[in-house]
């Protein structure tokens, strides 16, 4: 049998025939004003609007230099600034948020907002420290007071119009040196000179703040390029050795090198060798030499000699020790050899150098 199939469904159980009618589109349910129900009930929401941040500017609110006395100690429970501290001379240590940092000439530390700090100067050759305090974001329209809270009871502690901001250097300490960040060191020295002449004008405070942000931004890029992280750098947590000698690059110092630097600092009078320092580091002499070359651009013994000469300068400046006594305390068995090396490094023999320093 051929031909078109009839438009008849199979017979129902009752014997009647079910005829299929053409399908009709359902009538949409109406909403208000004739809108489909879905559109009537679901209306687009206005986006949440975040109020714009108030206009703000960077402000450099304090800069000074402090010569510590032998063994002098003091500290502050909470400093609300992005602080740069620079060891210009002498030595000692700072504990920042409980972590020990050795400070020798040339070391620069960038400290996080809200840090806790305690200083301890060396008994011999105590340090001269520069401190510069930056408020990265100071809101317009609020009093610009040249003061920085150093404890929670200060009248400006926790005020909402002063806060941290760019550049993003993280919440830990960043260590570098004056040689690795010369612009930062020069600007810090200039800021101290400006503040020595009296409280700067508001225009100067703003200009110095802008320049400091520029220098710290450059430091952040330098660190990011070294670590391969373009978003910024969190700082070397737990670094406790001494970076000195004016030859360090900005970097995260490996643990084995950190141990050696701390060991050398406390054993300059002893006989030191590459093999002995490698044993302290827990690596081979070749590995240690590569670490020194990468991070300090010096050989291990070249760096030791730098520290011995720096220690000798401090002893000659601050003690009545004879040249022979200074030589022994700095690890030189022969006073004549010490005098020759000292003259090569400073341009004057020890006795002449001491006379000149005492006249300054």
Description of the structure:
Pfam families: HTH_18. Residues 1-36 are annotated as: Disordered. α4 (255-266) packs across α5 (274-281) and α5 crosses α6 (285-295). This protein has two domains: 56-227, Jelly Rolls (Sandwich), CATH 2.60.120.10; 255-359, Orthogonal Bundle (Arc Repressor Mutant, subunit A), CATH 1.10.10.60. The longest helix has 26 residues, at 202-227. The chain has helices spanning 37-41, 182-196, 202-227, 255-266, 274-281, 285-295, 300-318, 323-329, 335-346, 350-359; strands at 56-67, 73-79, 82-89, 92-96, 99-103, 107-111, 115-121, 128-139, 162-163, 174-177. The chain is built from ten helices and ten strands.
Assembly type of the chains comes to single chain
CATH topology of the largest domain: Jelly Rolls
Order of helices and strands: HEEEEEEEEEEHHHHHHHHH
Question: CATH H-level name of the largest domain... which superfamily?
Answer: Jelly Rolls
Helix content range: 25-40%
Shape estimate: globular
| CATH structural architecture of the largest domain | Sandwich
| Count of runs of 4 or more consecutive helical residues | 10
| Whole-number mean pLDDT | 77
State the major sheet.
6 strands, antiparallel
Q: Find the structural class using helix and strand composition.
A: alpha+beta
CA(first)-CA(last) distance: 126 Å
Unreliably modeled segments: 1-23, 27-43, 228-251
- Say how many strands there are: 10
Proportion of β residues?
15-25%
Q: What is the count of distinct domains?
A: 2
């Amino acid at each position: 049998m051929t031909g078109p199939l009839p438009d008849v469904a199979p017979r129902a159980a009752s014997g009647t025939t079910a005829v299929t009618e053409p399908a009709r589109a359902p009538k949409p349910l109406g909403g208000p004003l004739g809108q489909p129900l879905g559109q009537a009930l679901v209306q687009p929401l206005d986006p949440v609007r975040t109020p714009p941040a108030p206009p703000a500017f960077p402000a450099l609110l304090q800069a000074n230099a402090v010569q510590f006395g032998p063994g002098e100690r003091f500290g502050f429970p909470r400093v609300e600034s992005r602080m740069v501290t620079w060891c210009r001379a002498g030595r000692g240590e700072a504990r920042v948020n409980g972590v020990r940092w050795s400070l020798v000439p040339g070391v620069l530390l960038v400290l996080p907002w809200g840090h806790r700090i305690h200083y301890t100067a060396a008994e011999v050759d105590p340090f001269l420290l520069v401190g510069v305090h930056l408020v990265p974001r100071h809101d317009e329209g609020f009093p610009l007071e040249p003061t920085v809270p150093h404890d929670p009871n200060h009248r400006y502690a926790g005020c909402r119009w002063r806060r941290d901001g760019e550049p993003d250097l993280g919440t830990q300490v960043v260590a570098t040196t004056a040689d690795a960040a010369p612009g930062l060191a020069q600007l810090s020295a200039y800021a101290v000179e400006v503040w020595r002449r009296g409280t700067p004008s508001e225009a100067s405070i703003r200009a110095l703040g802008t320049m400091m942000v520029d220098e710290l931004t450059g430091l952040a890029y330098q660190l990011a390029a070294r670590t391969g992280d373009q978003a910024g750098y969190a700082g070397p947590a737990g670094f406790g050795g001494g970076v000195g000698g004016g030859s360090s690059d900005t970097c995260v110092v490996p643990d084995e090198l950190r141990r050696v630097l701390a060991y050398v600092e406390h054993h300059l009078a002893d006989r030191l060798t590459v093999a002995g320092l490698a044993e302290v580091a827990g690596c081979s002499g070749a590995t240690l030499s590569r670490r020194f070359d990468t991070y300090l651009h010096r050989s291990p013994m070249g760096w030791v000699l730098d520290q011995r000469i720096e220690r000798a300068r401090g002893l000659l400046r601050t003690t009545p020790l004879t040249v022979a006594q200074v030589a022994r305390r700095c690890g030189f068995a022969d006073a004549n050899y010490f005098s020759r090396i000292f003259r090569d490094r400073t341009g004057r023999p020890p006795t002449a150098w001491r006379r000149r320093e005492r006249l300054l």
